[in-house]
Design a protein that fits this description.
About 55% of the residues lie in helices and about 10% in strands. It has three domains: about 80 residues, 2-Layer Sandwich (Alpha-Beta Plaits); about 70 residues, no CATH class; about 140 residues, no CATH class. α1 runs antiparallel to α2, α5 packs antiparallel against α6 and α7 runs antiparallel to α9. A four-stranded antiparallel β-sheet has the order 2-3-1-4. The chain has a three-stranded parallel β-sheet with strand order 6-5-7, covered by helices on one side.
């Protein structure tokens, strides 16, 4: 992005109808607010058309409006302007609505469930149209819509075959009891949280080894969070989310809340309110831990507290 289309405007103070109509049109178009009375869009044919139409309408109503092109020369300017079009908070609101709809599905009949799905899908599509710089947040929201659709099929399409993913299947946790689990040394958020999930919900007798390279994985050890490991990133999901799905733990709201924070801290995307607090606590214990085992032991306590707090909600 090297240039922007800008609309500079001043509306008649007494025409509240015009003000509301202009505000809605600019919001629906995805305009960023550079400052009071200055609205911008990435330079593109569609953006120029929208702003030109608004300029004409404002002038016809007796207001002042002017469209112009702004050229961005410095990389810092481009980065600042991109923040004007950050849709991550909007995607976050959508995902929260999707999760609420998913929780309500047992009480809804097929018709109401499909109505909710259509409404949420339209919301996603509308956001996607004005997401000029898509990233993790869009992928998360798209995954959430798809997960809701799958869940509706599971509940309201009894007897029909379910969609299956070759890369992910539900596993029997009893086959993973008393195992050695291997991951990369110097663990951080995703690996620490994954080890916590393994120890608390999959393999209470798990033992962990920290390796410098995949070839160092002990024979018969279960690998996680490295290239070629049995459990690692896939698609838009981090290792914690892969473990959660593989062992059928996704219906625990407290684990799901931790998963959202881990995802945000590991790969970005939709902001999570408690994520920075979790990161700060983990960073503090990482500074003091004498080795990776000690770090995990302290991280287990931190994540236990987060889980207990979420479980009380």
């Amino acid at each position: 992005m090297t240039s922007l289309q800008a609309l500079v405007l001043s509306l008649p103070t007494r025409d509240s109808t015009l003000r509301m109509r202009v505000w809605r049109a600019l919001k629906d178009a995805g305009c960023g607010v550079l400052r009071d009375g200055v609205y911008v869009l990435p330079a593109a044919p569609a953006g120029g058309t929208v702003l030109a139409a608004m300029e004409s309408e404002i002038r016809s109503a007796g207001g002042f409006a002017m469209t112009l092109e702004l050229r961005l020369k410095a990389a810092g300017q481009r980065a600042q302007v991109r923040k004007l079009f950050d849709r991550s908070a909007d995607y976050g609101a959508l995902v929260r609505e999707i999760e609420a709809a998913k929780a309500a599905l047992p009480r809804l009949g097929p018709r109401k469930a499909q109505t909710a799905l259509r409404r949420l899908r339209r919301w996603f599509e509308k956001l996607a149209q004005i997401d000029f710089f898509p990233g993790q947040a869009k992928r998360q929201a798209g995954d959430a819509v798809a997960a809701l659709e799958r869940r509706i099929r599971e509940i309201h399409s009894r007897g029909e075959p379910r969609a299956s993913g070759k890369r992910l299947r539900l596993l029997d946790a009893t086959r993973y009891r008393g195992r050695v689990w291997a991951t990369r040394k110097d663990p951080w958020v995703d690996r620490l949280a994954s080890a916590w999930l393994i120890k608390r919900f999959i393999d209470p007798a798990a033992r962990f080894v920290w390796i410098g390279a995949p070839r160092e994985r002990p024979r018969k050890a279960v690998g996680f969070d490295f290239d070629g490991a049995e459990f690692t990133h896939a698609g838009n999901r981090v290792t914690f989310e892969i473990l959660l799905a593989s062992f059928g733990l996704g219906n625990d709201p407290a684990i799901a809340a931790i998963a959202a924070a881990v995802h945000f801290l590991d790969v970005g995307g939709i902001p999570v309110g408690d994520a920075k607090g979790l990161e700060t606590l983990l960073r503090g214990i990482k500074e003091k831990a004498r080795d990776d085992d000690a770090l995990l032991a302290e991280a287990m306590r931190i994540l236990d507290h987060f889980y207990s707090a979420y479980a009380q909600r």
